[in-house]
């Protein structure tokens, strides 16, 4: 864990952190899988009510981010990314736990997510208490045309 790691939360409509998220995303997502979003996609989601973006920073440098969208008492983790040179230091887990705390503070009782079955983050989600819901065979198509299964997870936060 990095002691001076700071979490900055940006709510819907706030656009001043989009560049930092895009910088992390460009480094974090392997282009083979085609999972990185474009700036217009990210900006469009950030305009939706109930959306928030959390940026993990060391000093002013962005190291990772989490993007969450909520509707009523449920939310979905849309993206979680950590700069590859900072992986393995607890930043992803810190972002995830911070997102869960933020969701609870906003009256949200469950969080859902979907992830490529071969993504190493699956272990993080299971460690954090997310439960497997189902598999969607061939849901994602990589830039190379290869199909990848998606796994859906959910955590209930009533406690």
UniProtKB/TrEMBL annotation:
Residues 8-158 form the N-acetyltransferase domain. This is GNAT family N-acetyltransferase. SUPFAM superfamilies: Acyl-CoA N-acyltransferases (Nat). GO terms for molecular function: acyltransferase activity, transferring groups other than amino-acyl groups. The keyword Nucleotidyltransferase does not apply. Keywords: Acyltransferase, Transferase. CDD domains: NAT_SF.
